[in-house]
Amino acid sequence: MYPGWLWRGFALPGVVWLILLFIIPFYAVTAVAFGQVNPTLLTPEPVWNPLQWNVGWMSEALTRLRPGGDLWVVVVRTCEYVVVSVGMCIAIGYPVAYYIARHATRTKSLLLILLILPLWISYLMRMLAWVNLLAPDGYVNRFLIWSHVISTPYGWLDGRPITVIFALIYGYIPFFILPLYASLDRIDKSFLEAARDLGASPFRTFLHVTLPLSKTGILGGCVLVALPMFGDYYTPNIVSGAPTTSMVGNQIDLYFHYTSQPTIGAALTLILSFFLVVLMAYYMVTVARATKEQQA
Amino acid sequence: MTTTTPAPPRTAAPQGRPSAARRLRSWFANPWGRPRFLVLITWTYMVWAIVPVLIAVQYSFNGSRSRTIWAGFSTRWYISDPSSVINDPTLSSALQQSLKLAAADVIIATPIGVLLALGLARWRGRGSGSSNFIMLFPLVTPEIVMGVSLLLVFTNLFTFIHTGTFAQILGHVTFSISYVVVIVRGRLFSIGRQYEEAAADLGASPRVALVKVLLPLLTPAIVAGAAICFAISIDDFVISYWLSSGGNTTTVPMAIYAATRAAPLPSTNAIATILSLITLASVVLGYAGYRIFTRGERAAGQGMVGDMAAFDI
Amino acid sequence: MAGEVSLVDLVKRFGEIAAVDGINVDMPSGEFFSMLGPSGCGKTTTLRMIAGFEQPTEGRILLDGTDMAYTPPHKRNVNTVFQNYALFPHLNVHDNVAFGLRRQKVGKQELRQRVGEALELVQLNGFEKRKPGQMSGGQQQRVALARALVLKPAVLLLDEPLGALDAKLRKALQIELKALQQQVGITFVYVTHDQEEALTMSDRIAVMADGRVEQIGPPQEVYEAPETVFVADFLGVSNMMDAEAVGGANICRLMVGDFELDALKGKTDARGPSKVTIRPERVHLEDQDTNGPNRIPGMVERLVYLGNSVQVITRLAIGTTIQVLVQNAGGEIPWKQGTPVQAYLPPEALRVLTDTGAALPKLDEEAVEPV
Fold first, then answer.
1. CA–CA distance, C14 with B62 (Å, rounded to integer)
2. Which end of chain C has fewer beta carbons closer than 10 Å to its terminal beta carbon, N or C?
3. What average pLDDT does the structure give for chain B?
4. Distance between B114 CA and the closest CA of chain C, angstroms
5. pTM: predicted TM-score of the whole model, two decimal places
6. Domain boundary assignment for chain A
């Protein structure tokens, strides 16, 4: 009906744009990471030809990241923060998503609006809100003193891992709950009715039907949240200023904005991306396998 | 389930509602009564998610310089105080910059995204799979990776583009395109080819079918896509940060970030409130626009989220 | 206008698979022509090729002698009524019907007049301002009809237009459509998988399977004189039995199990393994002591009451189960469940088939289809 070149032509501007400003920049990172540094100007000199790549900076970055290197601590810390935060996202987020998907009938629309709301309130505003609340004279300290849990204000914002983890959870959990809700909502009610019909109690229905069917949803939510979290640097910077809570993202930020070692920064970025690609691939393989199972 | 013993006769006086204590006890006696436990968690979560922000909004109207001690209602941080949003040059220029970037983003990304969505949905042939893949990547790439790569490409390859407003616009458009594509594609999927085929059947040339049938039917998605573009651009922090050249290329999120780390005033709360209101307004407008433009259609009960969810990325 | 369609050696392949595998069909002007078959048989693909939404891999599509296989759909004088109507949701009924006229740059006066006439034809005057979303399925379908007919096409294509409607409405619209076709006088090409629908409405039916035409003919011929096992089975209950053809020229002598039967219809000069079929309404059940040729003893397995008739499911001595249809004449059916009977299969009702045609879709052995 339509000429063959039409759709290709429509797609062209977008594809060209993405190649120029997404794919090529990514290659620029690679070229800088495997490049040289101008000895006098200390600016990076990217090497575009793979055959001439200089692995010096990359190997230095890798050495620092290995156990024993000075960045190993950061790597471990980042993983800890992400794992704990994502775990708490699941713990808090799953019941909420489950309730909205399965039980809320009259209040469903309201709850959905409330669920989506934080997504559109600027991330920084939500962090700012807690910076205000966790200040030495903020509501949190005042409440804790009033209820005699502590006697002097606690320095929540003085470089505490617990604050960073809390902020990460607070910041990312809406991005976890929404896709999980969508996945739970999509579970065919007739599966659950069939299980109940066959004599399973509500709890066992949940354990043996809902939970397995929502595995891909949980995994998807985790990936959707963990991926950006691994690269997060602004959250630690806002709620803690200290190097004791710095994550991998902070290191990259440091190398670019506070020292002039963009080559190491580029190398770190590459390593981070590679790690995330592996994570993404694992997710896609798992989903593909699960979908095949469900279709069988 | 049926028993042969007859039900006890209703001779006893009506009990009236069980006392509050008894109700409370039966409520707690079954904490695993799924709904109750879940209700508690859900509403606690909602309060936890939203109330802190409301408090921050409240303090943007604080009479004193404190962000933590309430001193009465005042609009000084918006208007009168020398450090208010209007008077502080950093803040007002940040607001302008954010709006400028968002407007440019919408104008550029929406058409490109709509065309890309159409192209990807209908293109059958070599390259369509990889193009689709390329389109999806920005959605899953962490922003820091995108920020670093754009910074490096503008400082080492496309050096005719320096960091600054133009670079920031290019960066914003790059991640916005994929969002527009996803939204428009969902709508395309729910429309299908049937209307264009009907149009052609009735004598419409491909151009007429596109313009008089497909485009009007796509309008809700285009409106929603544009609104989403605006909202994510205005909210963007990381890309703007990495591509800024200081000074008047600072955006509102960057200003909030800087102020929060240094010496936040209620004016920070104020500009954050303004930002959030603008974002919310554009999202609401986009959603309302979608609803209005699909008003005449058979109520399939889907709507925008349904259209998007129906199309599995 | 003429409106004669000819499909010549038409083939459509999607990759390796041939959805339409070489069909030759002539649809004379003014005929109500149906393409009938199970899903996947190629009928919809063929229709879409006539409309222009698919291009044939091989073959020609002639409209009044001109090959239009490579003409784009908007240039063909053919219009389609789609399965889910495809009424433009953003336009009201009037603008929907006027859409094609506007493409032809018809003047305002004439446009209004023709739209009015078309809506009158489908009994929907007064609905001009309504939007499709505000109308029932049956009403939408009529708007779709009006929208197509207003352009006075040479041929009207209908792609299972009644599929989405409930049974009663479907029956009523079948009658309406047939009357409409006779009134307007243009060629209708109708696609359906419902054999009852095809039998009721068509002047001729093409039974299709696996991309090929099994048989073409008027409804009576296709039903009473099926040429392949597939056609016999698709058009109703076939009571298909395995047999060995042992002799005869005009009369075929067959061995069905241990029983001898004479058949007068079908491939009477066949030899060797064959199939023999008889329609349920042609079988006569008699008392078990009745003697005579062409009879096989059996036992009534169960009865299915259909209101205007009764299906008597009878298990014959040869092992097969057949279905016998007895009209409800008001009296009691003498054969209760478990009664031994004699099944008389009149030779003029028995048909010999050697051509299996397409593979039959797998069905439950015991399932019996009501006619």
1. 70
2. N
3. 84
4. 20
5. 0.83
6. 1-54, 71-295
